[in-house]
Write a structure and sequence with these properties.
This protein has two domains: 88 residues, Disulphide bond isomerase, DsbC/G, N-terminal (Nuclear Transport Factor 2, Chain: A, Roll), CATH 3.10.450; 138 residues, 3-Layer(aba) Sandwich (Glutaredoxin). It is 32% helix and 22% strand. Strand 4 and strand 5 form a beta hairpin. The chain starts with 14 loop residues before the first strand and ends with a helix.
Length: 250
């Protein structure tokens, strides 16, 4: 995850709130007792069954998670902001920190049997990689899978066909999943080999939807054990260094 930074105007504010319009649905957490905020959010999102409300470092501003989507609402339930909240003194993305907890919670529900795993002999880090068969940087990452493993990084693949469902990418992902040797099939598919289409019970659609709930916008998308999102390809050595840093910071 890249360190947050801001423009020259940031120094005039103790915290910077950047408004964004994209809704992200990630998961559900336990609701708390903030009556005015609860009522306002339920009026805004009637389908919301659960929400979590927590304080932020800004007096009167609350962090509200509704079905995994993070909002910032005043404690009277009158105003809402959506975007990223940064602590400039600590250079910390507080929104990403909150989202990482939800991603981590979601990943605890995933069975390893529903992943294609390239394990390391001596594992120091486990990462979950949402991948697309045809994505160029996904292929580059996979071409170096042995180097990641040699550095103690175990790669747990989950499918995220960027073209959506249905699509050719989705069909390729299902074919890989339904192959007798999933690892070999994934490697062949990423090398561009033509493979007869296969069908079986598979988790590809579920994984695609899970990726969307976790805020994926592209592939490869690397999620650490702590739930932090590292978007895009990162060379083996650089990724190992980043994972070490994140582990030390926890």
């Amino acid at each position: 995850m890249r360190n947050p930074h801001c423009s020259k105007h940031c120094k005039h504010h103790p915290y910077l709130i950047i408004l964004a319009m994209t809704l992200v649905q990630i998961g559900a957490v336990q609701a708390q007792d903030y009556a005015a905020v609860n009522a306002a959010m339920k009026k805004l999102i009637p389908t919301a069954s659960e929400m979590a409300i927590a304080e932020t470092p800004i007096d009167g501003l609350l962090e509200v998670t509704v079905s995994g989507d993070i909002f910032y609402v005043d404690d009277k339930g009158e105003y809402l902001l959506q975007g990223k909240l940064f602590d400039l003194d600590k250079r910390e993305d507080l929104t990403e920190k909150a989202r990482s907890k939800v991603r981590q919670q979601i990943l605890t529900t995933v069975n390893t049997d529903d992943q294609i795993v390239f394990a390391a002999d001596h594992t120091e880090h486990d990462i979950t990689v949402f991948t697309d068969i045809d994505c160029g940087y996904c292929r580059k990452l996979h071409s170096e899978i042995e180097q990641y493993n040699e550095l103690g990084i175990a790669v747990h693949y989950m499918m995220y066909p960027r073209a959506g469902i249905p699509s050719e990418s989705y069909d390729k992902a299902v074919t890989v999943w339904c192959s007798d040797d999933q690892q070999a099939a994934l490697t062949s598919a990423k090398l561009g080999a033509a493979m007869p289409l296969k069908q079986c019970d598979n988790p590809v659609k579920e994984q695609f939807e899970m990726g969307r709930k976790m805020g994926m916008s592209g592939t490869p998308a690397i999620v650490t054990e702590g739930g932090f999102l590292i978007p895009g390809y990162m060379p083996p050595g650089a990724l190992k260094q980043r994972l070490d840093e994140l582990s030390a910071a926890q």
